[in-house]
Amino acid sequence: MGHNGCPLCGAGVEDSLLALESQRVGEGEYGKLSAFGHVLLQISLDETASGGQRGVAPLHSPPGVTPWTPVPVTRYPLRPQSAISPYPDDQAGGATHLHRLIPASLATFLASGFGIGFVPFAPGTFGSVLGVALAGLLLKSGLPLAWYAALAMAVFLFGIPCTRRAAEVQGVKDPGWIVLDEIAAVLFIYTVIPFTWTTAVLGFLLFRLFDVSKPYPLRWLERLPHGWGIMADDVAAGFYTGLLMAIARHYGWLSV
């Protein structure tokens, strides 16, 4: 059952390959495979003849018609330099998101507050306590306020891709065990109010109140995509807490 009339490829090559295929599956299946195998061989040989370009053509092209139509084949490299940006379009074929450069295990460890987020109950509360403890440790160690504020901002900015990476690993938008947002938010409180035992306790209580009740615009911020939605609402709650305490201090209602 030859294909000597085919103008696309050498009949000897096709017949030899199809004959080998027929021996593998048995003569009874040869008729079923012949036409399909002819098409596959034609496409493969066309691609080879065109220098790697992929094309599809009818089995017997009319005289004077190109037997294949080149179709550009796009291959995306693993990390094209032009695609590296913090949050490129999710639909971009070869885009590499910067959050994926953070190892999953490291992102999980940091986003969970060094593992404290995996406590079986109230992880947000424990994360807030850790934030208060870190703020006290840094400020009582003599760290200048400007450096402390810069560190708080760095934690917030790093938290955006870090929490996104951690959430992506689990496949949930905002897992409860992520507490880096609470830590960053509590750090911001003490950029506008001195750290004392009184402000430590009051700041913790007010922050938890704002974080749970979510006054405007916290609900809206929570709906932001990816790590922005995880981090922004808590930092806004920290801003409300610091602002309220600063106002109370200004009017003499809070002594520090």
Plain-language structure description:
The protein is an all-alpha fold and about 260 residues long. It has 2 domains: about 1-75, no CATH class; about 95-250, no CATH class. Helix content is about 55%, strand content about 0%. The chain has 9 helices and no strands. The protein has helices at about 10-25, 30-50, 105-110, 125-140, 145-170, 180-190, 195-215, 220, 225-250. α1 (about 10-25) packs across α2 (about 30-50) and α5 packs antiparallel against α9 (about 225-250). It is globular.
Structural descriptors:
single chain, 9 helices, mainly alpha, 256 residues
What characteristic shape results from the CA principal axes?
A: globular
Structural class: mainly alpha
Number of domains: 2
Radius of gyration: 32 Å
Layout of SSEs?
Elements: H1 11-25, H2 30-49, H3 104-111, H4 123-140, H5 145-170, H6 180-189, H7 197-213, H8 218-222, H9 226-250
Provide a concise account of the structure shown.
This protein has 256 residues and is mainly α. The chain has helices spanning 11-25, 30-49, 104-111, 123-140, 145-170, 180-189, 197-213, 218-222, 226-250.
